[in-house]
Design a protein that fits this description.
This protein has helices at 19-26, 52-68, 84-96; strands at 34-39, 72-77. The chain is globular, with a radius of gyration of 14 Å. β1 (34-39), α2 and β2 (72-77) form a beta-alpha-beta unit. The longest helix has 17 residues, at 52-68. The chain is an alpha+beta fold. It has a two-stranded parallel sheet with strand order 1-2. α1 (19-26) packs parallel to α2 and α2 crosses α3. The protein has a domain at 32-103.
Length: 103
């Protein structure tokens, strides 16, 4: 989301990791059936760090709401250092109560 909106749309104390959920709660702007969410890592250093369940829970709620409205949602984690992306993807899958894909 847009950094210029901090303090205007996004409350000044709201962490950037919650901006999309805040935006989605106020606007139902949809340009198609598809939603693509990309996670670069929760730290200032791109591609590093774990989100963990506490930071992913609001995203899971937003994703679940999109899915309930019939939207296809694709999520990509590229916070790949130290295996964080895989661990976070599994946590999000569990929060969404989605069965693992068959291999």
């Amino acid at each position: 989301m847009y950094k210029d909106w901090r303090g205007i749309l996004y409350p000044s104390g709201l962490p950037a990791t919650r901006w999309f959920a805040h935006y989605a709660a106020h606007f139902d702007t949809v340009t198609g059936r598809l939603a693509y969410v990309r996670f670069h890592g929760p730290t200032e250093r791109a591609y590093h760090g774990r989100y963990g369940r506490d930071l992913l829970r609001p995203w899971a709620e937003t994703i679940a709401a999109f899915r309930a409205k019939g939207r296809d949602v694709f999520v990509y984690f590229n916070n790949c250092f130290d295996g964080a992306a895989l661990a976070d993807a599994r946590d999000l899958r569990d929060l969404l109560e989605v069965a693992p894909a068959a291999t």
